[in-house]
Amino acid sequence: MAILHLSLSPRPLKPPQNPNPTTPKPKILCNFSKRDFILHTASLCAFSFSAYDPFAIAFADTSSSSKSIISIIANTKTWFQFFGDGFSIRVPPEFEDIMEPEDFNAGLSLYGDKAKPRPFAARFASSDGSEVLSVVIRPTNQLKITFLEAKDITDLGSLKEAAKIFVPAASTLYSARTIKIKEDEGFRTYYFYEFGRDDQHIALVAAVNSGKAVIAGATAPQFKWDDDGVKLRSAAISLTLL
What we know:
- This protein is α+β, with helices and mostly antiparallel strands.
- 21% of the residues lie in helices and 34% in strands.
- It has six helices and 13 strands.
- The protein has helices at residues 34-42, 62-71, 101-105, 140-143, 159-166, 222-237; strands spanning 2-7, 46-51, 58-59, 80-83, 87-91, 96-97, 122-125, 132-139, 172-183, 186-197, 200-209, 212-221, 240-241.
- The strands form three sheets. It has an eight-stranded mixed β-sheet with strand order 3-9-10-11-12-8-7-6. The chain has a three-stranded antiparallel β-sheet with strand order 4-5-13. A two-stranded antiparallel ribbon has the order 1-2.
- The longest helix is centred in the last third of the chain and has 16 residues, at 222-237.
- The protein is globular.
- The chain starts with a strand and ends with a strand.
- The model is unreliable at 1-56 and 106-110 (pLDDT under 50).
C-alpha cells in the first residue's frame, strides 16, 4: 500500500518580497542559514509516495482532543481569498505568494511531450519562510487503485483508513475529524488531520471532486505552533471545493 507523504521540495523558494521592516524576526533555533531553513520548512508541503508501515503512525488519544482542537479556529472572512483550479482557500495576513513561473507552466504539454504534473496548485509563506500554506491536486487513482472515479473523499476510505494516504509514516497524529459542508446538491465531506513529524507541526485538509483530490497543508516548526497554530489550522480548514 502507498501513502501520500511530505517530502523534499524539488526547487528553492522565491525569497519573500517586501518584508515588513518593522516586524521583528523570530529567532530560529537551529544552525541552518535562512535559505536552508526555508527549503527545509517548505519541503513539508510537497507530496509523493512511499511504502506504508501500518505501525509507524503514533495515534495520540484523539477521542477527547479532536473536537477541541478543530473548534479552535479563527474567523477568516477578512483574509484574502485565493481562487485556484476548482478550489478556494483563505490566506493568512502577511503571507506572500511564492509560486514560481515554472509551477504555472507545469501541466502543459509541448509538441506531444507528456505533461509534467504541477507540484503545487497554490503556495504561500510567511515573511521569514518558516510557515507555509500549500495546495496540491492529485488524481485519486494515484492515491488508491480503483477503476471507478472517486466523487467524494469517502470513496478513498473512512477517516481512519484514509490516514494511511494522507498522514506520513513516523508521525504523531493529534487530531482527525470528518467535516461535512452543505452544498446545493447535498453535503461535501472533508477529512482533517493534525499531526507532528520530526520538528514540524502540520494541519491538513483533503477533499475529492470528479476524480481529483485537493489537499491543503499548513505547516510550521513545532516551537511556533503555540503562537500561530490557530491561524495555520484556520487557513487549512478554509479550503473549499468549487
